[in-house]
Each structure stands twice: as structure tokens, then as C-alpha cells.
Design goal:
Oligomer: heterotrimer
Structural class of chain C: alpha/beta
GO biological process, one term (chain A): tetrahydrofolate metabolic process
Largest sheet of chain C: 8 strands, mixed
CATH superfamily of one domain in chain A: FAD/NAD(P)-binding domain
Distance between the termini of chain A: 103 Å
Keywords (chain A): Oxidoreductase
Shape of chain C: globular
Largest sheet of chain A: 7 strands, mixed
Radius of gyration of chain C: 21 Å
Number of helices of chain C: 11
Protein name (chain A): Sarcosine oxidase subunit alpha
Helix content of chain A: 10-25%
Organism (chain A): Cognatishimia maritima
Low-confidence stretches of chain C: none
CATH architecture of the largest domain in chain C: 3-Layer(bba) Sandwich
Mean pLDDT of chain C: 93
Number of strands of chain C: 18
Shape of chain A: elongated
Chains: A alpha+beta, B alpha+beta, C alpha/beta
GO molecular function (chain A): sarcosine oxidase activity
Number of helices of chain A: 23
Chain lengths: ~1000, ~100, ~425
């Protein structure tokens, strides 16, 4: 057995030894140990180094509030995490741990030179220097500051673990399994009520685990605890351990992070490392207990200086004596009990020093009976020991003056500055706090949430008080749920240790206060004098003090330091604490793994990927894909050996010379139906729709009410009251939402139904001089020629045996069709067309070729050639506006002064003088010789190689471009300036002769 | 995540089913062309941005799909009420009274 | 007031830092000021600094309902860049970057402007087109910004995953090397100290309840928790609370206030050398000098003053970060917080005179307010002092929403097709 382990004490099963390593050395603990308790069992207090001064540090606490004992934990490749609390990490066989922020070793760390120069590193020192010479900042000072950052090292490998998330709806959620939480759960546990109680520790019980001496209704605390847990489970209460309530969000939405595997030696298959529970509770009971405050004195940070309550926990819960000859300094009764427990387990307690002049006679008697020397009205002014405390200097205080000190040898120093209620989750609710002058602490006041706070977290000390308050909380909760409590619950507790105490700022000292290293925030090395310096420099709000000194900003988020910091700042300011304020607690309660927040949303599941029915064919045929919004779209179809440019040129040429097939299924599709459908269309789109015949289609333009282009697409009329609207791929959801908005809230009188049919249709486009020839034999119901089915027609027909909505339209300038079939038939149709197309050397083409072909004809892509500041007139599409209509969305917006002003940017074509291809996004100027910043008059929106035109083409927005046809503009590039001529946007076949279907002879 | 009562579905459901749709009770003028530039600016852009009860619109996007109105306190984020689109503004004072 | 430099730091260290003086005194309001600035954030305090330093106007009060720098100045992710698309924005933000570079010396306060570079990732063809348009426009505007291939992105920021199989693959990035971060609190404190040194009163914990206008309609002063304060000019720079303050003067603004959340990880040793932004997935990340990863999120969908923000948005942001930087999956979130940002319809700010004589407003910064701080404050001071816009802020009027001459950075990045 390890030399500091006490036989018969604690809940650790030392009969089941567990080997783990710390800094490469193997240690043995037992099942139930944390890294900290196991190291302490071997007498190892030194576990880390502080952030700024690299001072040696040991565990000061036994729970999640620990600021010092932070370690790296590793489980093989990819499974490393820094800054793990040694006080919370359970050991398992094979666990590898390492200390942090030290070089070359924990015992000898060169970074500790900062400690010697500590006077230079006062609060805010970096704001005051490193400014001269100015050029040194980038190269010398800043790299130096940044190099000092951080505690542990970041993981560097991908995480092989996965993380889960679940929803949980319950009637009552109780946070904390101490006496208050358990008592509340017993009351609330009724038939038909779903009750959940959670605790961050590995086992339930809270303070009961550290107080086995108590008897509840005559039953020893631990027996009562196991009976109660068994009873709760039997009544259906969900008891969750290793589960931290990390945040309290709107309307009783509480996030819980459950650590599922970090304590296991072997990882079970298909088990997440952590699980985020999103709980929606009708009522919440917060019973988070209280945290012990350190005392603030010179040398209060040496390894071996520890909270008395934590020492009691190490003994009673883990069976570990944190020292064999400890000394005690306290301002609260609770530390006396800790001392008694240690003494009763064989420690030789050197002294109990109390800052108070008077304490309860029972305490004095308890000390006397154990032979412990007592010093009242004492302060502590120093400690000694480099890597472990060796002695403490105690001085008597008389009337505020500090007398001569005497050294007491010790191997641990237990301290208690009293207790602070845990108000973290309560504070997340935006609950208000009140200052309690007697307890020198904030207490909960009102919260907007349906929540009750109970026990020590509202300043009630002792097990009996907590149990009784838990009962009250349970009863009030039942009442709020319109339930009556069954029976009465009352508790009597023997050996309860409620205790009282006083609160201090930093302890009185006989040293120069400017020289004292009395730590308030251990991890960040913030001392009492730093806080006073901040106040001296004009920092009057606690937020300023915090930010100037970094007090409370360490990984314990002020759990150890906030109230001590506030008391000292308030004293320095000469103001009561509430006037100085308490910094807000922010979620999460304790640091929480990114993976747990991300949950399932990793890799392919980060966001849904939408795929068309033809996606499989495209993949089998070697397509390269591009993400477009949520869609994955075939970009181009390279043949072996082809790069993108070659593939796209081939696809273009084949389509223009024969026929190409394109998957247009991602286009948004909306069915507009009802007696008022045409009126609705007239109001939404710029175009007139009344006279559009059934079986005809038209290019539609949609504006916002600000007059700018939002979307476009071809719209077919399939009946007097039925329009088949297509939208852009990315715009589908927005357009439908906009239509619904106007229909439901502006024009509820219109009798129209809107249905998204994007997912209902597979849409395949056929384009090229052979498109009609290929398609005609497959179509039943209509003859494919210019007389029976002219350009911009639509019809319900059968294609290759499938019911189809067939459009004759063209986004390429060639004879074109879009065939919509019920979505699941998409691939069947594609393959039928593909087979029939073999006779014509058909090519499949992707989005890139689609872009080239449309640009050659000057068809715009909304979002590429427009950017939300472009009007129809800017695009030369005034023809799309139904001028006779009294109103449409955007009509009034188009009349605004700057939308009709001269000099707006117009969409034009550009042909370069040297036949080079312009870069998309390149900026255009009229005067290439001006200095920077240049006056830019527009930019290239689209640019492609074009075999059909015989030279590269571009579309561009150019100021006043429509009035500058044939003029030269300049595109300054980093290496040269390119000259280009303004042209029409239609580069190919302006007469549209290629759209005509030749009569077959 | 807020809880929102859909006045059509008559159910209280999580915010993720809903989309926010801006200030409520802004009526698009009958004949926009007759509006002055200033009036049109007001319609397009000027919004109440109160610290306190706010008349606003939501859409039960992943539910019935309908737009409805709500009064929500922008300080506490609490909904005071929700009600169908195209119905009159509820009286604020009685709502606040109810909440207290 | 003691000058800040290494020598004085040593001197004071030797005397136990007992003799440092207040960086700004606690001021009680006088009866009357030439200028009252509402809002003691970086923008308001900065305007006071420039009013005093460049325009000789020192009879100025900066009033705040809370403590100075307690709003968005102290709640943002400290990213500074100027590679905006439109000329108007690029000039304003680049003016700010020019001032950032000399700000520590100007204020005698180290604001730790760190030129570590801001890399904006492109995840689809549309992003690529949009960012290349930025790069070209910035080049002709003399604003530093260049295009990086995915491999170059990885070299610039080693934690980045450029796996082509990612759900949002990195298709390149736009890098502004001159961009970076600064220590946000120091900006407010530095401006406060400098302004106070020049005679400006900084009045904290004093809510302004109304702007009072005289019979002729012009501004007369402000009603506050500490009584009426007369002022020849009132300048409002109150971020998310601007609408509420301006309403009291009868001036309506096209603003909506949204919650914006941000978070930090536990501190680790240097791992992340620059700032990376991904608009497509809404995630922004850098590493602070303390070692924390500082991560910005998007806004919640609804307007709010609650500063609470929801869990789903944070979950999405963290998921986005680990999607782009998978090595951070086992890192832990230390703290998340919320701010309130005021957003205009075109996502660009307003720095402008108002229809009320003597009333000026600087608002609508959305998520871009911190980076603009010196530029906005500098031009706002000019506007207040001269009662006319500085050429740089002249386009950022209130009137543009009526005429339609928007500076629509958001629309310019709009995704369609």
C-alpha cells in the first residue's frame, strides 16, 4: 500500500490495483482513484507549473474547480488532451499522463526565471511597454509574448473517437447529488413524473462522500446514500454520474455533457466518448453546493497548501492523507473538522491556527482531546519549501497589528477561507443576485426560469439544512407541477458540521505588501497586490479588474478566485462588494470538449449533402463534383487523361455539334396552383403572365421589393390555374419562402397553393442540333417539331414510357429540352436517353460546360453575373418587365433615385484585344494610367474559353456599359494591363437560328 | 433554444422548427407606386428595434409552414403571446399584466 | 499621468508599483459640454481622443450606462482586416488599419496590434469567384490581399485540413498579411487614458435616458441618471442600444439588434499562427496571446438584447471549426459569451449627421465594429467637429437607404446559382 493511504478509509478499492504513468513514471492506485488522489497517496504533491511565473504547484482542490493540477492525458495515438484536471480524471490501467508548462522537467523548469523577475510582470505590464522601437514589435516583442502562451500542448492528430447527442424531456431535472439534490429527488420521485438527477463526479453523493461521520435519521451517511440511490432508481429516477450540467439556456433547456469512456481501460465498441444531452425540463432544481475559498497569504501556492475541505475529501472519499504532519490555517469552523479527521487517521496535526479570536468551545475541546496545538487570532505570513511546503510562519494579530512570527514545520498546509455558494447555472439564467453581508457572499435572488435553487448553493451550510431545503425545493416543484407531495419528509442529522466563519481579504502580514506573493488566481498567477495595482490605476469595475489582471480568467473560470478577488478589489476601492459587481458566469460550467458540442456533425455528417437521382451514374462515369449550396453537382466528366479544360471544351464542342445531356434536377421547382395563380404570378414576377397560353413557357424574373434581382427561371403554364415555376438551384428555398410570405401575409385573399416539387422531379436537359432527333422517337403525346411544339412550349407527355413534363427551352442557344419525370425514374430516363444518344456521340456535361454554353449566348447566372445590387435594366432585361402591370414585387423599388440614376453598372460582353482569357473578378478601369487607389468602373463576372466564338469571352458589369458599345476598357493585372472591347452579351447566333428544328426530309 | 407556440398547430415546439421573419404588422401599401421615396424607405428598412416587447413574425417552417405573429420581450426573450397573421395587435398592457 | 515605457516600468517595479496613477479619473458630469458622446466603447472613446487631439475640442464627456469598454469592444473576437470589396468599405477599413499600425505609439498604450494575417477560406466555386473579385479590387485600391492555393493555405496555417473529401473542401483562400488582431480591452483603455489626459470626462454607470431637443429642433443635451447634461452636440455611438437612444430624439434608424456569440478554448501552447475565417460555415478562429483559441460564431436568427444566445448555434460553430481543423476535436471550450450587434439592411455602417441639428450617429457595424474602431472614431470625430462628413465616411449616410445607393457587402457575397 502506498505510504499515504489509510487502511479502512475511503471508497477506493485498493484491492484492485491500477497502474498508470505520470511523466513517464509508473504509479499504482486503486479503482475509484483520481490521478490526483493516486499521486497524493504516494506523497506526490507537485503536479504542475503556473502560467506566468512557472511556480511549482500541487492540487489545491479535489474537484472540478482545481486550478493547478492540470495534466495532459493520453490513450494511444490521436487520443491526447491537454489541461485535464488531475482531480477529476479517474485512473485506469495504462493511462498515460504528463505535467505541463515546464521545460525541461517539472522539478526543474527554466521558465521559473519569470518568478524571480516577478516585479516586472505586474498586472497589465504589457500594456506599458514593448512599444519602442516600433519595428521591434512584429519581430521581437510579439513573438516573445506569443511564445509564452498556453499551458498544455494542443492535440495534433485527428480524434478517432466519436461523440453523441441526445434529447431528453423530463418533468424535473436536479443538478447535484449532494444532500439537497437527493432530498429533492426523493420528494419529486412520484409515479408518472420523469425525474433526472445528475452529478459531475464519478459517483453520486456530493458532500456525503466526504462526511461519512454523519448519521441521517440514525443511519450512517454512506448507508443512507446507497439506500437512497437504490430507492430513487427503483422509483424510476434517472441518476446520471460523470455528467456535468454545462449550461442553462432559454426556457429550461439545459445542456449536459456525459463522459462515457474516459474512465474505462478498454473502449467498448460503438460507444461514444462523450454524449451531449439536450434536456428540456419542466422544472429545474439547482443543488450545486458550495465551493471552499482559499485564504490569500504570501506563499499560499506551494505544493502541499490545500483547501481543508479537499484534504477531508482525499481522506474520507479516497483514503489518502495529504500529509502526515499537516498544519491548518482557517477562518471557518469546517477546517477544524478536517483537521480532526486527519488526526483521527493518524496524522500529527501540527497546529490549528484560526484568524478568529473566538471559536466554538467544542472545537477547542476537540483539538485538545487530540493533542493539537491551537493558535487563535493568528495570521500566516509565509511558507517555505521549494517543491513542497516545509513550514508555515504564523504570527499573532492584536488589534490589527501583526506580532512576531514563529515557524511551524509541516508537510501540508490546510486552509479554509469559508465557502461560496455555486451560482453558475443560476447565473446562466440571468438570475439576479443579492449580497449577503453576514455570509460575505452573493446569494440567488430571482430568476426568469422555472427553477429553484436549494441547499448550500443558497448559503445553507450543513447536511441537515441542505436535506430540509431539498425537501422544500421538491415540494415547491411538485406544487408547480400541480402535484401534491406524498407524506412528510423530515430529517435529523447527527454529527453534522454546519459551522460558521468569517471572510477575509488578503490576510494581514508583517511583510511589505508590495513584496507579498499572495495568490488569488493560482493558475494565472494573479496576486492580491496585482488587484490593488489595478484599482490604483483606475480600474473600478470588477470587470475591469478582472480583465486588467486576468483574475478569474483561468480554466477554473474564477471558481477559486472570484470572491477573494472581489473582496480585495472592494477593499481597495473602499466600496461595498455589490457596488463593485460580480463578473458574470458564462457557460460551460466546466471546460467541455469541442467534440461533444459538434456531436454527430462531423465529416460527411457536418451538413446534409443533397444528391440527385443521377448522382450514382455520374460517379460511375468519372464525374468531378462541385458543392453548390447543399447540393453536390457534377462539375465535368473527364475522360481518361483529360484535365478540366480539355473535358469542358470537348463537352462544349460535342453539345454544339451534336447533343449533350445535363442533369438539371437541382433546379428549384415550385407548383403554383389555384384560381388566382395567374394574379399571384403577375404580382410576384416582373413579367406579364395573363396572356401566356397553356402549354407555353416564359423566362421569369423575380425581384425583391428593393428592385434588385433575386432569382430567375423558366415558368411553364400547364393549365389555366397551374404554373410550373423553376428557380435557381441555390434560390429554391428562398424563393418559396418569399412567395409564401407575400401570399400568406400580404395577399391572403388570393386563392393559391404553393408546393415545393424540387424533390419530386428529376430534370434532364438535352441540348444540341441533334437533341430533337434523339428525343422525338421517345416521346408519345406530341410531335417534336417547330409547328407542334415550338420553342418555349411545355406539355405533359410520355418519354421513354415515363410520364413527363416536357419543356422546350434552351439555356445553350441550341435546340433544347428539359424533361421532368417523377424523381425515382430519373436515372432510368437518363440511361434511356444516353443509350439513344450513342448514335449521336452524345456527351454528358456538367455545370462548367453549362456555364460556358449559356455565357456564349449571354444568359445570366443570378448570383454570378448579378450580386444583389443589379436591376433588370442593368442586365439589359428591361424586356422582362410587364410595364402595364399596376404593381409587382420590386416595381416601386426600381423607381428609387439611385436605381434610375445615370452611370449605373450594366452587364456587357468583353472581348480581349490579345485573345487572353480574363480572370473572373478582375476589375475594370477606363484610365489604366491612374495611380492607386484606382477608380474602378466594374468587374468581370464570367469568363470562359470559347471554341464556338473562337476566342475567350467574358461578361462584365461596367459603369454606363450599354452606352459604350465598341469602346475599349482596361483590366489592370499584377503583371500587365489587358485591353478589352465592350460588346453585346450575346456572342453567338444573335438571330437564334440554331433554335430552329430543321424539317426532317 | 426558445420554445414557441404555433397558433395554428396549437403546440409549443422548439425554435429549430421555426424561422424568424422580422417585425410584424408592416403592411405592404396597396399601391406602392404612389409611395414617396421616404415612405418606401420606411416600408423596406425602418424597423422598431425595441428593448422590451416586440411585435414580430415567425414562420413554422418545419411544421405547418405558416407565418404568424408574436410578442416577445427582447430583454428576456420570453414570448408574451403568439397569434395568427392578419389578426390585430394584442393589447400590450394586458399581456404584460398576464405575464406578471 | 505617468508615461508608459520600459524605464518607468522598471522604476515603478522597484517601488513595488505603489506610485502608478489612475489611467482615467472618475468624473462627475459638468453642467455643460461642447460634445457629449453616448457610449464609452472603442468607437466613442476613440472619437473623444481624436476630437481632443486633432480638433482641439476637449470640453467633451463620454457617457456610458455601464463600465467603459463593456459592450462589444470587450466581447468580440478582435479580428482586424480591410480586404472589403467595395471601394467605400475598403477605404474606411484600410484607413482603420493605417491607424491601427501606429495606435500603440499614438496612445502610449500597447494595444498589441498583431499583424499575423487573416486568411479567408473559399469552399466552393462561388466563394472562389467572390474572393478573387475581392483580391482584384483590393489590389487596385492599394489594399493588401492575395490568393492562396489550398496547399499554400495549409502552409500558412498548418492545423488546416485541406482534404478534398471534406464536406466543405478548401478551394483556396484570400490572405491579407497586414491584417490580424489586437488586445480589445487595451483599445478602450488606451483611448480612455489618452482622452482623459487631454481633458475629456469619462462618466461610467450613468445611463442616458433621453436626448433632449430644443424648440428649434436642435439638440440641447442629454437626460441621464445623473441629471440633465447640456451639450452643443451629441454623438451617439452605442452599438446595439443605438436604436433605443436615437428613438428618444425622434430619429428612426434602419437597425436591428441581434445576439452574437463567441467562445474561447482552454489555453494551449502556440499552435495557430494566424486568423482564419470561413464565411461559408460561419466560423472565425485565432489564438490569443494567452493561448486560447478565440472562435466567433454567427448571429442568432432573432433580435434580442438578452446577451444569452442559444446552444444550437454554438454547436454548429464548434462543428464547423473541427470540420476545418479536425485536430481540435479534443480541445475544450472554456467560456462562451454573447454581445448585441446592430445590423443595417446592407450590413454596412452609418457614420453620419442626422436630420436633427447637432446630433450625430455612428452605428450599424454588425459584426465588423472592432476592426473599424480607429477609422470610425477618427472620421466620426471629424464629422462631429466640422459638421460635415470626412471624405472616407461620406458614403456611409443614413440617406442611402432611401435613394438605394447601398454599400451591400452582404449581397456581394450572396450565394445563388
Amino acid at each position: 500500500m502506498s505510504s499515504y493511504r489509510v487502511a479502512g478509509k475511503g471508497r477506493v478499492d485498493t484491492g484492485k490495483p491500477v497502474d498508470f504513468t505520470f511523466d513517464g513514471k509508473t504509479y499504482q492506485g486503486g479503482v475509484g482513484d483520481t490521478v490526483a488522489s493516486a499521486l497524493l497517496a504516494h506523497g506526490e504533491h507537485l503536479m504542475g507549473r503556473s502560467f506566468k511565473y512557472h511556480r511549482p504547484r500541487g492540487a489545491v482542490a479535489a474537484g472540478s474547480e482545481e486550478p493547478n493540477a492540470l495534466i495532459g492525458t493520453r490513450r494511444g495515438p490521436g487520443r491526447f488532451e491537454p489541461n485535464t484536471r488531475a482531480t477529476m480524471q479517474e485512473i485506469w490501467p495504462g493511462l498515460e499522463t504528463q505535467s505541463q508548462n515546464k521545460f525541461p522537467s517539472l522539478k526543474f523548469d527554466v521558465g521559473a526565471v519569470n518568478d524571480a523577475a516577478y516585479m516586472m510582470f505586474s498586472a497589465g505590464f504589457y500594456y506599458k511597454t514593448f512599444m519602442w522601437p516600433r519595428s521591434f514589435w512584429d519581430k521581437v516583442y510579439e513573438p516573445f509574448i506569443r511564445q509564452a502562451a498556453g499551458l498544455g500542448v494542443s492535440p495534433t492528430e485527428e480524434d478517432p473517437d466519436h461523440y453523441a447527442s441526445r434529447y431528453l424531456h423530463c418533468d424535473v431535472l436536479i443538478v447535484g447529488t449532494g444532500p439537497a439534490g437527493l432530498a429533492a429527488a426523493k420528494v419529486a420521485a412520484q409515479d408518472g413524473l420523469k425525474v433526472v438527477i445528475v452529478d459531475e463526479h464519478s459517483e453520486a453523493g456530493g458532500t456525503l462522500l466526504s462526511e461519512p461521520q454523519a448519521k441521517i435519521d440514525g443511519t450512517p451517511a454512506w448507508d443512507w446514500l446507497s439506500a437512497t440511490l437504490a430507492e430513487l432508481k427503483a422509483t424510476g429516477v434517472k441518476v446520471m454520474t460523470r455528467t456535468t450540467a454545462i449550461g442553462y439556456y432559454h426556457q429550461n433547456f439545459v445542456g449536459l455533457c456525459e463522459r462515457v469512456t474516459d474512465h474505462l481501460s478498454a473502449l467498448p465498441d460503438d460507444t461514444p466518448r462523450e454524449r451531449m444531452w439536450r434536456v428540456r425540463a419542466k422544472r429545474v432544481i439547482l443543488a450545486q453546493g458550495a465551493l471552499e475559498k482559499p485564504l490569500v497569504f504570501h506563499g499560499n501556492d506551494r505544493p502541499g497548501v490545500m483547501l481543508a475541505g479537499s484534504a477531508q475529501t482525499y481522506l474520507n472519499r479516497f483514503g489518502v492523507l495529504v500529509g502526515k504532519s499537516p498544519a491548518v490555517i482557517t477562518s471557518h469552523d469546517s477546517a477544524w473538522f478536517a483537521a480532526f479527521d486527519l488526526a483521527d487517521s493518524g496524522a500529527k496535526v501540527q497546529v490549528i491556527a484560526d484568524t478568529r479570536a473566538e471559536v466554538d468551545a467544542d472545537l477547542i475541546a476537540g483539538a485538545k482531546s487530540r493533542g493539537i496545538p491551537v493558535k487563535l487570532s493568528h495570521t500566516v505570513t509565509a511558507t517555505s519549501g521549494r517543491l513542497r511546503v516545509k513550514s508555515v510562519r504564523l504570527n499573532p494579530v492584536d488589534g490589527g497589528s501583526v506580532g512576531a512570527g514563529s515557524n511551524v514545520t509541516c508537510d501540508a498546509l490546510l486552509m479554509s477561507g469559508g465557502w461560496t455558494p455555486s451560482l453558475h447555472l443560476f447565473s446562466h439564467t440571468k438570475g439576479s443576485l443579492t449580497w449577503d453581508t453576514d455570509l460575505t457572499t452573493f446569494l440567488p435572488n430571482e430568476t426568469p426560469e422555472d427553477c429553484i435553487i436549494a441547499g448550500a448553493s443558497r448559503g445553507l451550510w450543513g447536511i441537515e439544512a441542505a436535506l430540509k431545503d431539498g425537501v422544500t425545493a421538491g415540494e415547491q416543484t411538485l406544487d408547480a407541477l400541480d402535484r401534491a407531495a406524498s407524506g412528510t419528509h423530515s430529517y435529523a442529522v447527527e454529527n453534522d458540521r454546519a459551522g460558521t466563519g468569517v471572510t477575509h481579504k488578503e490576510l494581514l502580514t508583517d511583510k511589505s505588501p508590495g513584496k507579498a506573493k499572495a495568490f488569488v488566481d493560482y493558475q494565472n498567477d494573479v496576486t492580491a497586490k496585482d488587484l490593488r495595482l489595478a484599482v490604483r490605476e483606475g480600474m473600478r469595475s470588477i470587470e475591469h479588474v478582472k480583465r486588467y489582471t486576468t483574475n478569474g480568467m483561468a480554466t477554473d473560470q474564477g471558481k477559486m478566485s472570484n470572491i477573494n478577488g472581489l473582496n480585495i478589489a472592494a477593499d481597495a476601492l473602499g466600496k461595498p462588494q455589490p457596488k463593485v459587481g460580480l463578473t458574470t458566469f458564462r457557460p460551460p460550467y466546466t471546460p467541455t470538449t469541442f467534440g461533444a458540442f459538434a456531436g454527430y456533425h462531423r465529416g460527411e455528417h457536418f451538413e446534409v449533402t443533397r444528391k440527385t437521382q443521377i448522382d450514382g451514374w455520374a460517379r460511375e462515369n468519372g464525374a468531378v463534383f462541385e458543392p453548390v449550396g447543399q447540393w453536390s453537382r457534377a462539375w465535368y466528366f473527364p475522360k481518361p487523361g483529360e484535365d478540366m479544360e480539355t473535358a469542358v471544351r470537348r463537352e462544349c464542342v460535342t453539345t454544339r455539334n451534336s447533343v449533350g445531356i445535363f442533369d438539371a434536377s437541382t433546379l428549384g421547382k415550385i407548383e403554383v396552383k389555384g384560381p388566382d395563380a395567374v394574379e399571384f404570378m403577375n404580382r410576384m414576377y416582373t413579367n406579364p403572365w395573363t396572356k401566356l397560353g397553356i402549354g407555353r413557357c416564359r423566362y421569369g424574373l423575380l425581384l425583391g421589393d428593393d428592385g434588385f434581382i433575386r432569382d430567375d427561371g423558366v415558368i411553364g403554364r400547364f393549365g389555366q390555374d397551374l404554373f410550373h415555376v423553376t428557380t435557381t438551384t441555390g434560390g429554391a428555398a428562398r424563393v418559396l419562402n418569399m412567395m409564401e410570405d407575400y401570399l400568406q401575409t400580404e395577399w391572403p385573399d388570393l386563392n393559391v397553393w404553393l408546393t415545393s416539387t424540387t424533390e419530386n422531379w428529376s430534370t434532364i436537359a438535352l441540348n444540341g442540333p441533334n437533341a430533337a432527333r434523339l428525343l422525338a422517337p421517345l416521346v408519345e403525346g406530341i410531335d417534336i417539331n417547330d409547328e407542334d411544339f415550338q420553342h418555349m412550349s411545355c406539355a405533359e407527355v410520355t418519354v421513354a414510357g415515363m410520364p413527363a413534363r416536357l419543356f422546350r427551352l434552351s439555356f445553350t442557344g441550341e435546340i433544347g429540352f428539359e424533361i421532368n419525370v417523377p424523381a425515382p425514374m430519373g436515372r432510368q430516363l437518363w440511361e434511356a436517353l444516353w443509350a439513344a444518344g450513342q448514335a449521336y456521340d452524345i456527351t454528358a456535361y456538367g455545370t462548367e460546360t453549362m456555364h460556358v454554353l449559356r455565357a456564349e449566348k449571354g444568359y445570366i447566372i443570378v448570383g454570378q453575373d448579378t450580386d444583389g445590387t443589379v436591376t433588370p435594366q442593368d442586365c439589359g432585361m428591361g424586356w422582362a418587365i410587364g410595364k402595364a402591370k399596376p404593381d409587382f414585387v420590386g416595381k416601386r423599388g426600381l423607381m428609387r433615385p439611385d436605381l434610375v440614376a445615370k452611370g449605373r453598372k450594366h452587364l456587357v460582353g468583353l472581348l480581349t484585344e490579345d485573345d487572353s482569357k480574363l480572370e473572373e473578378g478582375a476589375q475594370i478601369v477606363f484610365d489604366p494610367n491612374q495611380p492607386k487607389p484606382m477608380t474602378m468602373v466594374g468587374h468581370v463576372t464570367s469568363s470562359y474559353q470559347s471554341d464556338a466564338v473562337g476566342q475567350p469571352i467574358a461578361l462584365a458589369l461596367v459603369a454606363g456599359g450599354h452606352d459604350k458599345m465598341g469602346e475599349t476598357v482596361y483590366i489592370p493585372m499584377p503583371d500587365r494591363t489587358i485591353k478589352a472591347k465592350i460588346t453585346s452579351t450575346v456572342f453567338l447566333d444573335p438571330e437564334n437560328t440554331r433554335l430552329k428544328i430543321a424539317k426532317e426530309s | 433554444m426558445l420554445l414557441i407556440h404555433c397558433p395554428y398547430c396549437k403546440e409549443t415546439l422548439p425554435e429549430s422548427e421555426f424561422t424568424y421573419a422580422g417585425q410584424a404588422h408592416i403592411v405592404r401599401p396597396e399601391m406602392p407606386s404612389e409611395q414617396t421615396d421616404a415612405q418606401w424607405e420606411e416600408f423596406l428598412f425602418l424597423r422598431a428595434n425595441p428593448k422590451g416587447p416586440h411585435y414580430e413574425r415567425w414562420r413554422h417552417f418545419h411544421g405547418c409552414g405558416r407565418f404568424f405573429n408574436a410578442v416577445r420581450d427582447t430583454v428576456s426573450d420570453k414570448f408574451l403571446t403568439t397569434y395568427p397573421a392578419n389578426t390585430p395587435k394584442p393589447d400590450l398592457e394586458s399581456l404584460i399584466g398576464d405575464a406578471e | 499621468m505617468t508615461r508608459f515605457n520600459a524605464l518607468n516600468l522598471v522604476k515603478h517595479a522597484l517601488t513595488g508599483h505603489k506610485n502608478w496613477t489612475e489611467q482615467w479619473p472618475e468624473a462627475e458630469p459638468k453642467k455643460e459640454y461642447d460634445v457629449v458622446i453616448v457610449g464609452a466603447g472603442g468607437h466613442g472613446l476613440g472619437a473623444a481622443h481624436y476630437l481632443a487631439k486633432e480638433h482641439g475640442i476637449t470640453n467633451v464627456a463620454v457617457i456610458d450606462k455601464g463600465w467603459l469598454g463593456g459592450g462589444n469592444t470587450g466581447r468580440n473576437t478582435t479580428i482586424i482586416r480591410s480586404n472589403y470589396l467595395y471601394d467605400e468599405s475598403a477605404r474606411l477599413y484600410d484607413h482603420a488599419v493605417d491607424l491601427w499600425e501606429g495606435l500603440s505609439q499614438d496612445l502610449n498604450y500597447n494595444v498589441m496590434y498583431s499583424r499575423r494575417g487573416v486568411l479567408m477560406l473559399a469552399h466552393n466555386v462561388h466563394d472562389v469567384q467572390s474572393f478573387q473579385r475581392h483580391v482584384h479590387a483590393n489590389r487596385l485600391n492599394g489594399v493588401d490581399n492575395r490568393w492562396l492555393t489550398p496547399q499554400e493555405c495549409k502552409e500558412y496555417c498548418p492545423p488546416l485540413s485541406i482534404s478534398p473529401n471534406a464536406r466543405y473542401p478548401v478551394m483556396g483562400g484570400a490572405l491579407q498579411e497586414r491584417a490580424g488582431t489586437a488586445r480589445h480591452d487595451a483599445v478602450a483603455w488606451g483611448y480612455a487614458r489618452s482622452a482623459a489626459q487631454r481633458g475629456v470626462d469619462i462618466i461610467q454607470n450613468c445611463p442616458v435616458t433621453a436626448i433632449r431637443r430644443g424648440a428649434n429642433g436642435a439638440v440641447e443635451g442629454v437626460e441621464t441618471a445623473k441629471g440633465f447634461i447640456k451639450a452643443k452636440k451629441v454623438a451617439v455611438s452605442a452599438a446595439g442600444h443605438t436604436s433605443v437612444v436615437m428613438d428618444t430624439a425622434g430619429v428612426r434608424l434602419p437597425l436591428e439588434s441581434y445576439p452574437l456569440q463567441a467562445l474561447v478554448s482552454e489555453p494551449v501552447k502556440p499552435i495557430f499562427p494566424c486568423v482564419v475565417m470561413s464565411n461559408a460555415v460561419h466560423a472565425y478562429i485565432s489564438q490569443s496571446d494567452k493561448g486560447e483559441l478565440v472562435i466567433g460564431s454567427g448571429t442568432d436568427q432573432y433580435t434580442s438584447y438578452s446577451q444569452r444566445g442559444g446552444l444550437p448555434l454554438i454547436e454548429h460553430t464548434v462543428a464547423a471549426i473541427v470540420e476545418i481543423f479536425p485536430i481540435f476535436n479534443r480541445m475544450r471550450m472554456l467560456r462562451k459569451w454573447g454581445g448585441i450587434v446592430d445590423v443595417t439592411p446592407d450590413r454596412s455602417a452609418i457614420i453620419s449627421k442626422t436630420p436633427v441639428d447637432g446630433l450625430y450617429v455612428n452605428c450599424g457595424w454588425g459584426t465588423g465594429g472592432f476592426k473599424a474602431t480607429p477609422g470610425a472614431a477618427h472620421t466620426f470625430a471629424w464629422t462631429i467637429a466640422k459638421n460635415e462628413p470626412h471624405p472616407i465616411n461620406a458614403p456611409f449616410t443614413m440617406e442611402r437607404f432611401r435613394t438605394g445607393r447601398l454599400i451591400d457587402e452582404a449581397a456581394a457575397a450572396a450565394v445563388a446559382h
